[in-house]
Amino acid sequence: MSVPHFVVSNPGSHVILLGNEAIARGILEAGVIIGAGYPGTPSSEILSTLAKMYPYFSHLKIEWSINEKVAFEVAYGGSMSNVRSVACMKHVGVNVASDAFMTAAYAGARGGMVLVSADDPNCYSSQNEQDNRYYGLHALVPVFEPSTPQEAKDLIKYAFEFSENFQTVVLFRTTTRLNHGRGDVVLGEIEEIKREYGFDWDRSRWVCLPSHSRVLRLRLLERLKEISEFANDFPYNYLKISKKRLNGKRIGFVSAGVPYAHLIDALNHFGVKDYVSILKLGMVYPPPKKLIKKLFASVDKILVVEELEPFIENILKQIAYDEGLSKEIEIHGKDIFPQNGEFSAELYLENVADFMDLEYNGVQVPDDLIIMPPRLPILCPGCSHRASFYAIKQVEKKLKTKFVNSSDIGCYTLAVYKPLESLDTEVCMGGSIGFANGISKIQSKENPVLAILGDSTFFHSGIPGLINAVHNQNSILVMILDNRSTSMTGFQDNPGTGIKITKELGTKVNIEDLVMGCGVSPENLWVEDSNNLLEMIEKLEKAVKADGVRVFISRHTCSLVEANEFKTKKIVPPTVKVDPEKCKGCLICVNKFGCPSIIFDENEKKAIIEHDTCRGCKVCIDVCIHDAIYMEEE
Amino acid sequence: MELKSFNLLIVGIGGQGVIRAVQILAWAALLDNYKVRTAETHGMAQRGGSISSFLRFGNEVEGPLIPSGNSQVIIALEASEAVRNFRYANSNTIFLINNKVIIPPSVHLMNMEYPDLDSVQKFLEQISSNVFIINGHEEALKAGDIRSLNVYMLGVLVGSEKLPIKQKTLENSIRRFVPKKAQIINKIAFQNGIKNGKIIKEEIE
To answer: For residue A247, which of A279, A275, A211 has the smallest C-alpha distance?
Structure first.
């Protein structure tokens, strides 16, 4: 690809970067050495961009870790060793890392230590929209939040220096719109850190047993106090006071992150930016009390503009109460802006207009609306997951029963939609096996309990659940959909492929060995190519009927990865066709299997395979009960 | 350079080159010394899902999202996606619509109706009088590759003279973002697009 590598351009270059690329560039500029993370939308491009920088900057030590907890620990080990380190993950990943994070907050940072959390208001690609600013409040750790790609780059660079100055871990909170938006960025110098690296054997600090932790906690509280004081001079907190009034009122706004950028757009839209006072927080916790008090003294009413929880709003209200101002000053927030979802640009216009008594007419909707059926997210043509779920359904049908299909996070979650509709739970990474453990204690044998998860998810947090099932003799069938890739987040490699983030060769971990190492007996382990539908059904039936903890590895490379491999190796995939003479128009391939490459000709009442999109997986040949689908011989 | 903000929306489905088209425009806007913001919304699907990509540039842009009713131009690489995004348009918005409707496979499963090109056009004409159906699909194939559709549509936009970016800058940007072996095809597509855009220019109200 001829796509330019803007991220490694020279200092002073004016370029366009994705928010995540800007963050990666800031990390590079800060002289960071260790970067670790686990893929998760919308955070994944930060580490993969750092990995792309590696050929140019070989001092970088970047890895995809096995999960977010390990990623945080890897980075924290770097901090203990006096190097600047970063851990990157999506918001729910911080839950996984939180065990390490909460106590690392006590021991603090030696080399600059930043945890990047990519939150996802509106759940664009997540199971919840938790607000991770609370992790800062929870751990007593400062929370930084950028508004634009430029600020993201500058702020994260500064975060490492800040972390070392105050010996604190910094939580760097972003949201999807920042991570996945692009903006113009001026690149800065890459810092050269000159210092001794290495572990420091300070046991009173790194060994967090009770007698040490009590002391560390006092230090933590002291640190927070110092940071709170400094917050008033924090270079990315801005207070602009306007002496003007609008309709007789002095109006103030407080905001941070992406909402700040859209607030400014809304104020510009109405031409009222100079009429209001604005406090912009680059550090949302701890709050700059002096600046807030100054704002209180300059306005009659304040609107806090923030997505998700009333985090800043509650802080403001607390300060107003402490200052005895709760009656004098109106503080608005969640009474005006919603507590869920991402704010659309017009929502800012509506609410700013409403708050400031300005005129705003929304969009007129035409009378004759067209109802647009959604383009549902679907499994790709040739996706091996489709074949696996189709096999599961066939066995279910054959045994005249209903399985409990406890499932997990990954592309395969899309099997919840029509036509497969064969997924019963999805809550958190690795949860499929955990829930299956519990469900199997209650469910009778007539409804076999399956735990269905992908290869990367199994490595991430499926293994403890499997050992648990073996040890406690919870009778479940674990189905590992091993497509040799972490596809949903951008085809990252994992221990199963043995390729490292830098594309260098690592050590491969064999899933079969791992499963048997967890205590699963060899006769309770089945392996089959996901696309061999008939063998899959036959073996799966045996696995379902067997007793004890069973594991079925359904293996076939992700069809998108495979298509790319074919392209590089100049392999032409087989041509699969429908014989119109034999096709009865029964629609099984369209309405039960649901490969998007198979379409139905309504006039002829025959199925047709679209050659443009068909990947030649040949599964539909076995799906067709009339032998109408065949592979064209060369 | 006195431009406060220009808002443009490109919509289509995964794999059509929506995001690349916005990247090309964004880089060109930067070369013309504007502040630039872009954002995308797309579902979880790798291919075939709806994609809308926002571009904002000018001296007064901070956030990447366009408020409804505030997009000066909407380009649809797949016609029906313009309907999905109609709320970003106002009565002056210029719609450049590729003449192809791609019906999602789920429609068949759900037994639902999907609008055809005619009803897309009629619907959009309720909103703006500047709805132009472009034979982009054929033109891209004529240039040598369907994948030049996005660049062809950018050519139409340039020809219409409704884009406050210099043609030369945009050409530079296309060269930077298009793979080497596709340069000539895209150049042809762009030039043919401009020709078509000049015709449209006369019709814009």
So the answer is: A275
A-B Cβ pairs (cutoff 8 Å, strict): 162
Q: Where are the domains of chain B?
A: 6-105+114-203
In this complex, do A372 and B80 lie within 8 Å of one another by their Cβ atoms? yes
DSSP string, A559-598: HHHHHHHHHHHTPPPPPEEE-TTT-----IIIIII--TTE
Q: What CATH number matches the domain at A6-233, 3.40.50.2300, 3.40.630.30, 3.40.50.970, 3.40.50.300? A: 3.40.50.970
- Does the pLDDT value for residue A168 go beyond 90? yes
Could you identify the residue written with the tokens 């690149």?
Answer: A187
Taking the Cβ of residue B68 and every Cβ of chain A, the question of whether any pair is shorter than 8 Å is answered with yes
Can you give the pTM of this predicted structure? Answer: 0.96
**3-state SS assignment for residue A521:** coil
Round the CA-based radius of gyration of chain B to a whole number and report it: 16
Report the C-alpha gap between A533 and A536 in whole angstroms: 5
User: Residue A330 corresponds to which tokens in the numbers above?
Assistant: 């109106």
List the single best residue of A1, A14, A182 to mutate versus B (max B Cβ within 10 A): A182
Could you please state the CATH topology (level 3) that the domain comprising A572-631 is classified under. Answer: Alpha-Beta Plaits (3.30.70)
Q: How far is CA A17 from the centre of its chain?
A: 19
Does B164 lie at the interface with A, CB-CB under 8 angstroms?
no
> CATH classification of A384-568 is 3.90.190.20, yes or no?
no
User: Residues of A with CB below 8 A from B127's CB?
Assistant: 366
Per-residue confidence (pLDDT) for residue A157, from 0 to 100: 98
pLDDT above 60 for A320: yes
Fold that domain B6-105+114-203 belongs to in CATH: Pyruvate-ferredoxin Oxidoreductase; domain 3 (3.40.920)
User: Using one digit for the tens of pLDDT, what is the confidence trace for B88-144?
Assistant: 999 999 999 999 999 887 787 777 889 999 999 999 999 999 999 999 999 999 999
Q: Which residues, 6 or more positions from A93, have their beta carbon under 8 angstroms from its beta carbon?
A: A37, A38, A40, A43, A67, A68, A71, A117
Report DSSP state, residue A634. Answer: -
Contact A375 B13 (CB under 8 A): yes
Closest C-alpha among B45, B3, B136 to residue A560: B45
What pLDDT is stored for residue B110 in this prediction?
76
